[in-house]
Amino acid sequence: MKTFKFTKIVLLAFLTFGLISCSDDDDGGDVVEPTNTIADFVAGNPDYSSLAAALEVTGLDATLDGTANFTVFAPNNAAFNTFLSDNGFSSLSEVPEDVLTEILLNHVQEGEIMSGDLSTGYIESMATGMASEEALSMYINTDDGVTINGVSSVTTADVEVDNGIIHAVDAVIGLPDITTFATADPNFDILVQALTREESFSFVETLMMTEDPAPFTVFAPTNDAFVALLSELELAALGDIPTETLDATLQYHVVTAANVRSGDLTDGMAITTLLGEDFTVNLGDDVVITDGRGRTSTVIAADVQANNGVIHVLDTVLLPPAAE
What is the 3-state secondary structure (H, E, C) of 133-159? Predict the structure, then answer.
């Protein structure tokens, strides 16, 4: 398990009741001015006692009691109970402190973000995962309220406090793996159908792993990319693609044992995939990939960072070299 630096814990501290300021009155005495920080709000609400305890255990309560502004998606006690049960913990004390720290940071963003400022797409949390030192992504969907990573919904929004904004949520937002974003983002619906089409496919189980062959770099085609592929192949539906062809094509979009972010790419770079075949990266105004058949695909969104790897979104499905 990765050890997280002390400076990161100092960077953030979640919620409890504290922080007072003093000013001189007309007689020269001190007047205590009560505060209502994020930490104060959590500590003052019994339904957030688990969150308050988690913040105290990790030492994150101090930061969220300070003057810097943060936005917090705050899980209630019921959410924590479900999280513990689902992950085989009988109490909060059983969660490794470094893991708990990252999970809590995955509920926090720097600055004040009102619900009306959120839009469907990816934002960054304050957490980092096992694959890199970069901030983990969060997928926000505002089509029907606000949901995060497809697992947690905002139940009460825009609670304003002295040092930021609190949005109450109904589930703990765990550290996302590659499959979290694939299932949460509706732009990948057909990709998910492809990954799970055959019982023999083990893509989902593999892409949930946090140990070898993780981390992964996944070049993920959108729904439109798959629709265009079917037209190109003159096929009516995903089910018409031969199993061997689909398996090879999906493997051709996955890189193992590497968290390759856009800044790591170089012009003319050859990338070896899970299939054992290469494709070529070309840099210009966009990142363009040339596949094994000379076709090109453009990266339309980069660096969606998960705990076990990174996703780059493609507008065209890549095809490996044709069998000789």
Answer: CCEEEEEEECCCCCEECCCEEEEEEEE
Query: DSSP character for 34?
Result: -
Question: Which pLDDT band, with edges at 50, 70 and 90, does 324 fall under?
Answer: low
This prediction has a pTM of 0.89
Range of weakest confidence among 31-45, 115-129, 293-307? 31-45
CB 261 within 8 A of CB 132: yes
- How large is the average pLDDT for residues 63-69? 94
CB 83 within 8 A of CB 75: yes
DSSP structural state of residue 213:
T
10 three-class SS: helix
**Cβ distance 255 to 247 under 8 Å?**
no
Taking the C-alpha atoms of residue 155 and residue 168, their distance in angstroms, rounded to an integer, is 6
The distance of Cα 305 from the centroid of its chain, to the nearest Å, equals: 6
- Is residue 265 within 8 A of residue 288, CB to CB? The reply is no
What token pair was written down for 286? 């966009």
Query: Which of helix, strand or coil describes residue 32?
Result: strand
Long-range contacts of 41-47 (CB under 8 A, 24+ apart): 41/15, 41/159, 41/161, 41/166, 42/14, 42/15, 42/16, 42/17, 42/74, 43/15, 43/16, 43/17, 43/18, 44/17, 47/76, 47/77
DSSP assignment letter at 2: P
Structure letter (DSSP) for residue 294: S
Of the candidates 61, 115, 309, which has an alpha carbon nearest to the alpha carbon of residue 207?
309
**DSSP class of 196:** T
* Cβ 137 vs Cβ 304: under 8 Å: yes
Average pLDDT value for residue range 271-279: 98
Give residue-wise pLDDT tens across range 196-229: 999 999 999 999 999 999 999 999 999 999 999 9
> Which distant-in-sequence residues (6+ apart) come within 8 Å of 279 by Cβ?
252, 270, 271, 273, 289, 290, 291, 292, 318
